[in-house]
Design goal:
Elements lengths: L3 H7 L5 H8 L6 E3 L5 E3 L1 H7 L7 E7 L9 H14 L4 E5 L4 H5 L7 E2 L2 E4 L1 H5 L5 H21 L6 E6 L3 E3 L9 E3 L10 E3 L1 E3 L4 H8 L3 H10 L1 E5 L4 E3 L6 H8 L6 E5 L4 E4 L14 H10 L2 E5 L4 H16 L5 E6 L1 H7 L12 H21 L4 E6 L6 H13 L3 E5 L1 H4 L5 H13 L14 H13 L3 E4 L1 H12 L7 E4 L19 E10 L4 E6 L18 E2 L5 E2 L3
Parallel strand pairs: 3-16, 3-17, 4-15, 4-16, 8-11, 17-18, 18-19, 20-22, 21-23
Antiparallel strand pairs: 1-2, 2-14, 5-6, 6-14, 7-12, 9-10, 12-13, 14-15, 22-23, 24-25
Helix pairs in contact: 4-17, 7-8, 7-10, 9-10, 13-14, 14-15
């Protein structure tokens, strides 16, 4: 059996100019990065397409992740290829992968099998340099902040209340907590510091939520980096860093055009983590895709309680988007794991374990239908070991909720394996009307919003807010940030804040440890459990298997 990279390298790609023609993008709007990828001049193209009606928007999300895998990105890509197979004009809008997971455990984010975006090596490694630009903008702001203190501290910044960290797009636990500015006065002011991974930087969230370069600059200016000795916030605007940061981001902000293995146009742009930030690709790429295609297929990170919740409550609210249909991806293997089976036992039929794990899928589906009130279909990624009895059990349980189940074979068959799913998704878009509702309104308090998400979306009993977090909520409320959406950072492995609680736990309480504002992004971050903004590498990193030969051909990349 060929690996993902071998499959990707076996397919002859179309020149990116041909892909652009398929998408309806004139060559004058393209900035080519080699033969097979390009940036698109968003502003000029959107002006030209201003009178064109927006296409339908399809969100792909998933059950709570397990080590058995779900295949959300693979399904997103295969669904789009399947829609082209049935004659639809479709665009894909995806996130860019972070180098951290690529070299660590999770792998890349270019899909798998015969449902991939290509060139997958480029997309997973450096791509068009967007993440480097975001890291540079982040670190320029950090440098200007420390320099301001060194040069006399006219803004009266309290060095003990600096909230801005440097970043690097790599899993590097050694950098989580550092002491810098050592070596005497000429080398800065000694202080405790730390690094985030680039995808956890607020610049990444700002980048993905900005609707234009002007909006980007306004958001950058609002970023709070520290507080003064008399508790006043200090912003990037106060430090006069915004113009230079925007200059570093001026090319990165343009969406990237690539293709699927079957030549479907795909915009791959931005990529915040969904257990830390809002986990969605850029608003600019999504809106551009909706202008270019009659249908846009996009995804949100991790399970529906994280990625989809943030896509719907944050991204859709800020961008004025309403999905026309939602796909919830599941595998029988993963559901059996939620039912208590070990990873080594997933290959044999076990209806009892499947029955115990099914409530996880059903809660996600119920959230989409009953909390957000959107049309929904379940896509089951079928594995060769899945039995007919197991498939029939999923179909029966979902039909009780009034939701169809479609088998997806896009990993093995590409677009052909996604035709049945594509047909059902088109039917949902054209025949079923949702009544899109957020899980909370903005006029409630920060605590009200946290409780709404925990009770309505996670299925929890309530919230325990630690004293330090209560104080932070009071401070943010006094500063006027209580009317922002919330972005809950929690484990992706459970509906609760305890990763060991699989399935669909009930009666649990979510503990809020810290609350901080991402003023540029425009949301309040609620930290629960043991969330880290700088991951570490595993005992055997994926990086150990990656190589490149004398011809420049990369191997070992999945």
């Amino acid at each position: 059996m060929m690996t993902d990279i071998e499959i990707a390298q076996s397919i002859k790609m179309q020149p990116i100019t041909e892909v652009a023609k398929t998408a309806g993008i004139d060559e004058e709007y393209l900035e080519q990065y080699g033969k097979y990828k390009a940036k698109v001049d968003y502003t000029a193209l959107m002006k030209n397409a201003a009178d064109k009606k927006d296409g339908k928007l399809i969100l792909v999300t998933a059950i709570t992740p397990t080590p058995a895998g779900e295949g959300k990105t693979t399904t997103t890509i295969g669904l789009a290829d399947g829609m082209r197979k049935i004659g639809k004009n479709v665009m894909v809008a995806l996130r860019e992968p972070s180098l951290g997971p690529v070299f660590g455990v999770k792998g890349g984010a270019a899909g798998g099998g015969y449902a991939q975006v290509v060139p997958m090596e480029d997309i997973n490694l450096h791509f068009t340099g967007d993440f480097h630009a975001i890291g540079a903008a982040n670190n320029l702001l950090a440098a200007m902040l420390d320099n301001h203190i060194y040069q006399g501290n006219a803004l009266n910044i309290d060095p003990r209340r600096i909230t801005w960290k440097r970043c690097v797009d790599m899993n590097d636990r050694q950098l989580r907590f550092v002491v810098d500015g050592l070596g005497g006065r000429v080398n800065g002011t000694p202080r405790e510091d730390g690094y985030d991974i680039t995808v956890a930087s607020e610049i990444m969230a700002v980048f993905c939520l900005a609707s234009s370069i002007e909006d980007l600059k306004e958001r950058l200016s609002r970023i709070i980096v520290a507080y003064t000795y008399d508790q006043k916030p200090v912003t990037a605007g106060d430090l006069k860093a915004v113009g230079a940061m925007a200059a570093l981001l001026k090319d990165a902000i343009k969406p990237n055009l690539v293709q699927t293995l079957e030549g479907t146009p795909a915009l791959v742009h931005g990529g915040p983590f969904a257990n830390i930030a809002h986990g969605c690709n850029s608003i600019m790429a999504t809106k551009l895709a909706m202008k270019l295609g009659d249908y846009t297929v996009t995804e949100a990170g991790f399970g529906a309680d994280l990625g989809a919740e943030k896509f719907l409550d944050i991204k859709c609210r800020m961008a004025g988007l309403t999905p026309d249909a939602v796909v919830v991806v599941a595998t029988i293997r993963a559901l059996k794991m939620h039912g208590g089976l070990a990873k080594t036992e997933l290959g044999t039929e076990n209806l009892e374990a499947l029955g115990k794990g099914l409530p996880n899928l059903l809660r996600h589906v119920s959230n989409i239908k009953n909390v957000y009130k959107l049309p929904c279909v379940v896509a089951v990624n079928r594995f060769p070991t899945d039995t007919d009895a197991e498939v029939e059990e999923i179909i029966r349980k979902c039909q009780e909720l009034g939701v169809n189940v479609v088998l997806s074979e896009v990993w093995a068959k590409g677009g052909e394996g996604g035709v049945a799913l594509a047909t059902e998704v088109v039917r949902l878009c054209e025949e079923e009307k949702g009544d899109f509702t957020f899980s909370y309104e903005l006029d409630g308090s920060i605590q009200d919003k946290i409780e709404a998400v925990v009770k309505k979306v996670y299925g929890g009993a309530g919230v325990s807010i630690l004293p330090a977090a209560q104080k932070q909520i009071a401070e943010l409320t006094a500063l006027g940030f209580d009317k922002c959406p919330i972005c809950v950072a929690k484990t992706q492995y459970s509906f609760s804040d305890d990763m060991t609680k699989l399935g669909a736990p009930e009666g649990f309480t979510v503990t809020v440890k810290n609350v901080k504002v991402s003023a540029g992004a425009g949301f309040v971050v609620v930290l629960t459990g043991d969330i880290m903004t700088m991951p570490g590498l595993p005992k055997v990193p994926a990086a150990e298997k990656i190589d490149v030969d004398a011809n420049g051909t990369i191997t070992g990349l999945f």
